[in-house]
């Protein structure tokens, strides 16, 4: 396991860190069961389900727990909130690849036109926007692995350090790809990958499609400019026990 200092150094320098055996297997079993009904929504071309925080109480409870929040709080502070969760599954019949990109979109409760925020659009009635890099830099994602993910399962691939240069153009992404060796993030069930959204990441189609279920939870600092509010804001569960 990481010390806090080693963890923060890895996030600062590389943009990601993998914590092995972070979630007990009994908790992984509960999460698998909780998200199973959502998997029927996945198709060959749609490998992810959105709004998992709102739709799955077990995921919401896990995101609010001290066990989940300890990584986010180490980076963002104790007042951070969970703002989004997605479910991914690569399996036989729904296998896909994703090119190198950064996660630069966020969701707010309502549109407020501020300098540096835009373009805006709505998806399923929810305002989405490209915010300034400074906002995205106050976000961190936790990817909870519900299954083992080896080289044949289409693991996440990253370009270490690419999170430190802001939002990148297509040309800059190509330059990073040409000069920085990629790292494949293999994981076991119960491992958690913590990453910065601006870290360049991609994934290949699985060579041997089996199951590669991942719950992707995003945390953000609560402070926002100009009256903006996160569309969802799940706070810490501070109850004893």
Order of SSEs, N→C?
A: HEHEHHHEEEEEHEEHEEEE
Largest sheet: 6 strands, antiparallel
Question: What integer value in Å does the Rg equal?
Answer: 17 Å
Distance between the termini: 23 Å
Number of beta-strand segments = 13
Low-confidence stretches: none
Oligomer: single chain
Helix content: 10-25%
Note the beta-strand portion: 25-35%
- Which whole number gives the mean pLDDT? 92
Structural class label = alpha+beta
Side by side, the strands of the main sheet go 1-11-8-13-3-2
Describe the global form: globular
The count of helical stretches stands at: 7
What can you tell me about this protein's structure?
The chain has 241 residues and is an alpha+beta fold. Helices cover 24% and strands 25% of the residues. The mean pLDDT is 92.
Main features:
241 residues; alpha+beta; 6-stranded antiparallel β-sheet; 4-stranded antiparallel β-sheet; 7 helices; globular
Ordered list of secondary-structure elements with their pairings:
Blueprint: H1 4-14, E1 16-19, H2 25-35, E2 48-49, H3 52-55, H4 57-64, H5 66-76, E3 81-91, E4 98-101, E5 106-107, E6 120-123, E7 126-129, H6 133-136, E8 139-145, E9 156-158, H7 170-179, E10 183-185, E11 192-195, E12 201-203, E13 211-220
Antiparallel strand pairs: 1-11, 2-3, 3-13, 4-12, 5-7, 6-7, 8-11, 8-13, 9-10, 9-12
Question: What's this entry about, in short?
Answer:
The chain has 241 residues and is of the alpha+beta class. The chain has helices spanning 4-14, 25-35, 52-55, 57-64, 66-76, 133-136, 170-179, and strands at residues 16-19, 48-49, 81-91, 98-101, 106-107, 120-123, 126-129, 139-145, 156-158, 183-185, 192-195, 201-203, 211-220. Helix content is 24%, strand content 25%.
